[in-house]
Fold this sequence. Notes:
Layout: H1 3-6, H2 21-24, H3 29-40, H4 46-50, H5 57-81, H6 96-99, H7 104-108, H8 111-130, H9 137-142, H10 144-168, H11 177-202, H12 206-220, H13 222-240, E1 244-248, H14 249-256, H15 259-265, E2 279-283, H16 290-322, H17 324-341, H18 353-356
Antiparallel strand pairs: 1-2
Amino acid sequence: MDSRTFCAADRSVSPPHPSTNQDEKIPNELVQFWRRGYQRLGFQKGYNFSFCQSTPPRFELTILICLVIIFAGAIVGFSLARLSYLNISGSASSSYANGASPGEWYWYSHGIHRIGITIHLATILPAGLLMIWQFIPVIRHKFLMAHCINGYLVVTLIIISNVGALMIARRAFGGSLSTQAGVGVLVIISTVSIALAYYNIKRLQIDQHRAWMLRAMFYLGTIVTMRLIMILSALISSKMSNYNTTMTCGELLSILDTSQKVNAFYPSCGQPGATVDTLAIMQAKFGSQPEQIASALRLSFGMALWMALFLHAAGVEIYLGLTPRENNRLRQVSYERQLERGLSPAGSAGLTSDRWGDAEPWQPLREVTEK
């Protein structure tokens, strides 16, 4: 495999875009400070750094801080906060066994689900810390081999983590059909996006590589937004006091520790013939008894997953739609590099709408004479 092909970055002699009138306005000192910061990382425009279209100076700082925290800092912060979960079965309060939602460890402590959760956490947490570096231009331009190696590593970790996610989906927060379907869809679209990004970079279609990698990373960021929605939903549903879910007697025993407590609070578990798989009904009430907290989280998990997935899927398409100049610049870079490598048709050698769809044939911004 030719590593130069996969590692093809947007190193180009193509001139940068001319400044707009907004960019020429003199910003205040705080905005200048932030601009100096993201320009040192290789970002030439505020919208590239903050995932937002260029804005007037008085709005740029607010959008910059908010969106960087949401789309970049949140993934890194979430991964850092969950690194202690790599201690899967430890006795420390920060281990996964003690930090997971009540009742989860009952399933994940053994068997195929123990293997699945171990694979998932051991791969997705490092991937969350590494993926952000793929989008920093200064690394792509000055440390291309590091960008290449890190890219291979992130892609490998994500694919393996998706396998682990499928292994635990049946028991994740109750494992309802909506939860299993949501996990399955997230695995499919993230894996397909990575595959398309890989194919496009092999064909030196850098603009499409960027688009599909952004989609993959946005989809994977769903897990962070989902947690916020899940907790808010659990709090709201708890106030209504008319939602209930079920939990097996075995899960209740793992939460309440003694069968006496289980039988006292949930008589169905103490009836003749009851087993660890017997179901007990409990109220979904966040902030009360641990089993009721688990019930509230289970009630909200599937809905939160689908809502977060929709928000991230829409968000990345909005961002891509708001940055056409960057896409056009990278299309020109792709044209030049494909022409050098002899790929045809130059500028559309990858998965482009003019080659595979009914779009008008793409024309380069400027012709390059083949040497």
